[in-house]
Queue: 4 jobs
Job 1
Amino acid sequence: MFELTFLGTAAAVPAADRGLPALLVDHGPRRFLVDCGEGTQRQILASGVGFRRLDTILLTHGHADHVLGLPGLAATLAQWEATPHLTICGGPATLAVVRALLDGALHPYGDPGIEIRLQEIGPGVVWEDAELRVVAFPLQHTVADCLGFRFEDKGPKMRLDPARLDALRVPPGPMRALLAGGVGVDLPGGRRVEPEEVAAPSKPGPRVCVVGDTGPFAELVAEAAGADLLVCEATFLSGDAQRAALSGHLTAAQAAQLAVEARVEALWLTHISHRHRGPEVQAEARMVFPAARVASDFERVKVVGRKD
């Protein structure tokens, strides 16, 4: 299961009711912050989610509205001793901006009190353990190394089908334990039973796809395909389609069309321009994808996967 907390849902400049881009993704003991706009540390405090276990930041790109909160957040994490180290992940061009930002705003004042690790990433798997995989994929914005992120729950561990075990006469005890652990067994009569023969049907775990600043392009559909939740920028309305194209952004209708083509379960829109109000952005998107919703700062959503 995932739990997402929208910490900042504005675009480029804050609004009275929207902070700059930041999204917290929780999965079990792991926490990932996607982008860190100016004021993110205050948004974390105001949301009540706290700083504990927050040690990994994934950056979509290096524009100021997505990274200016890094020095302040790092300083707060050090002051509160919330984590001994902070890993900031991004493409080469993004990390060049981050390095200059930290060198200018944090490092000149001595030891910041926290180990900051800059981890260069590109398209592909950027983090993985037994239960979760995080995949980066390219986006097309106005600067280099723009990335989106897909969070993939690997689903429940293999379960055995009791009826199939009984039909194959696998005795209770060690043999069933071995099969549950993914190891084949030899029955007393010489019959070999492999784990997949006795596995109960299972559905994949939930998937969350986060699309940051980007213009439309065909390959994006495949990256978002089948997501249980698509979090996507919707900076403009269709009336500003030309401005959106020139600045490398999506309109609400384009984001909704992506959701339709990718066959996602739910669509939450973010990165909303101060030129537009949430209800009008949501209304445009719902004309294309009825399940669309505009996220507000401090909203939370749990993603448990599809029922079917």
Job 2
Amino acid sequence: MLTIDADAHVLETGQTWEYMDGAERKHRPQVVGATGSDSKDEYWLVDGTLRLKSRNVGRNTPQASREMRDVPARLTHMDELGVSIQVLYPTLFLIPLTPRPEVELALSRSYNRWLADIWKQGKERLRWAAVVPLMTMDQAIAEARFAKENGACGIFMRGTEGDLLLSDPYFFPLYEEASRLDLAICIHAANGSATLYNYYKYETVGFSKFKLNCVGAFHSIVMDRIPERFPKLRIGFLEISAEWLPYTYTDLAKRFRIKGKELKSDFLRQDRIYVACETTDDIPYIVNKLGDDNIVIGSDYAHADSATELLAIHNLSADPRLTPSLARKIVSDNARALYNL
């Protein structure tokens, strides 16, 4: 059986930015250490701002693997974990990095070329979600096209981008192009709004900052009928678990009724929306309420936070609450459908 880790990560290194050339090179992030304390923390210096680098690092993964310095080592570790394919997401880009379009473009272009080279070494087992420069939509579309030609199976987005909801018409050209390219829109636990990010700057665990805004994005995408507007678009929600789904469905269904419409319980399948669960979720309850065709699972490989479960594929497959056919759907069939693998 083809097992798919629907949400794994890479940790960016200096090599990530070696794909910048010419005038772009002045935008290369630099690694700096903490000063004036005993801290061993490291930071990325990105466009004049320090961004913490050395936390949320999965020390139970080999450094050469999580940093993609040794792609064969990553594949070997995947074999040990019983994973056929990983879909790779970024780490640094989980937060807003710059207000300048030219810097965003340089960062995303270099990252995408780094991932393209990783894909070429990965024997079709390392697929990825592209980072696109959303402040310049024509360049975002160009990066999506490059990514499609180089092994990407999705486009990475955060729960909020700038000060816009993800249902805003500004993003429609990207959704149209993603539909044409057969790339999923992959909304990962993350925050792309400097306003919201700074508002929650004292939140230590990132629950409101990174996860609840994605639940809000889900609500607005369904409420504003983005799936109807783009009938070939597939959308994934990653690393926010899935137990919020029944509550959100109940709220949406009431709002639809107020408008004289009906939102059926199989709307995930009809709308081609997929959500990554965690093994701590009450999965039987979720699928009883909303069906079993649109639930996937990821390990959060390379990280070390509340969503990380290195053996997620194995543990879900062995979960006595689940039938073998349901487990197969979650670890294989549904993810193949989301990413068109």
Job 3
Amino acid sequence: MVLRRLIAAGVILVFGLSLFGCATESGYYDTGRSAGVGALGGAATGAALGSIIGAATGSPATGAWVGAATGAIVGGVGAYLYAEHRNSQMRSAQAAARTYNYSPTQGNLVQIDQAYANPASARPGQTITLATAYTILTPDNAAVPVTIYREVRKDGQVVGQPYSTQVSNTNGSYTDTVNYVIPQNAPRGTYAVTNRVMSSAGTAERVSYFTVM
């Protein structure tokens, strides 16, 4: 409960800072204003929130990724590059259990079945869909809060800010997608996307790729 209140307070503060950006008729933020103010506000407040959460939970690592994710969600660059997030169930609990020959005695199973970009090649300014197909199976089939994290890199350098969102899933297989707008100044080449599924039941990671032509 305390952790949720801390996160909520931090998100409200960051959103307050990010509102200095201005929306255009197309639905995108003015990249000159919102990217600068939003990114600074998101990064600074995310770091502060991470420190608070780390101290409250006794886990600096937990505070670090929660703080970074919070800053990225509402930071100007992250808000501009990502849009239209969707999370849908592809297999029921029973179907997923049959597919993986799962028994409750095995404990928790969390894995990424597939990760890809569609289309796999695009030009600067175009939009691609980043997809992550994953499965969660637990003995009690209770709803599990899941954080979906994505980070795009070119030649080892992060492009924009990472993207993070949270959903709540019972047992089953799911597909999580988000649209990604390739920056207008993106250089040609291959980009690597780190796809990570994090929950109390376990964590899984897989890398996908797309090409900028």
Job 4
Amino acid sequence: MKHKLVAIVGPTATGKSDLAIQVAKHLDAEIISGDAFQFYKGMDIGTAKVSVEDRLQVTHHLIDIFDPDDKFSVADYQRLVRLKIQEIDAKGKSVIIVGGSGLYIKSVLYDYQFIGDSRSHDDTDFSTYPTEELHDLLKKNDPDLAAVVHPNNRRRIIRSLELAGSNAIETRKKGKTPYYDDCIIIGLELDRGQLYRRIDSRVDAMIENGLVDETRALFEKQVSSQAMAAIGYKELFGYFRKETDLNTAIQMIKQNSRRYAKRQLTWFKNQMQVDWIDVTARSLDETLQETLKLIKK
């Protein structure tokens, strides 16, 4: 890397995307999404994609590149993003990776080497594994997916392992050595009470902005891929199947989002070397200034 490589990570609803845009303007950088569900078209509100206006201000990559039924593994993400980093660097620009999907980002920034072809697996490959053990494997290799897949749903677990790159269950290296020499990982964290209130408000705003209609369109198209395991969509699918009422589904979205945020923070603190910024009492500009100081160091 001739230019700067910055990753901005942390739990959902901590302001990562807004910060990334401001940092990109200061560094003359382009942004690569590190969110496991923003790849998919038609999933805009529930994945909190940045607006079209923001994307006109700063170039974003890996947003709206697949249909919801398409498969896209962690190994695929690693290959694509490393190529994107080379392309952006060759243009004389810095790179910012932003998102909360930990394993996806770590696969790029650390020495992950996936074994085998992630597309060559089906149910028979896992026939000797108990369902509980399969879910444990999924939690180990892709906690983002494991968080939204029921531990007793064997079929969904297997599909999730395939999406994660099922033959990446074992890696030649454990992902502890940085892949890039000059990279900084900045994490945003909030007081838990404030974070949970922000998550609840964010879900209310998503509902007001049309999340129910967005999800209904996917439901009516009978989309059944792993993309529909995303929080916000899977709960509303239950509502459309008349398994619950709308208010209960919304409360489930809030609860699952809060639980997911807690798991994200734990994962990043255990798995990656992150410079953390507590944004509880900071404005966006104050967070930006602190971020730029860390980058300059």
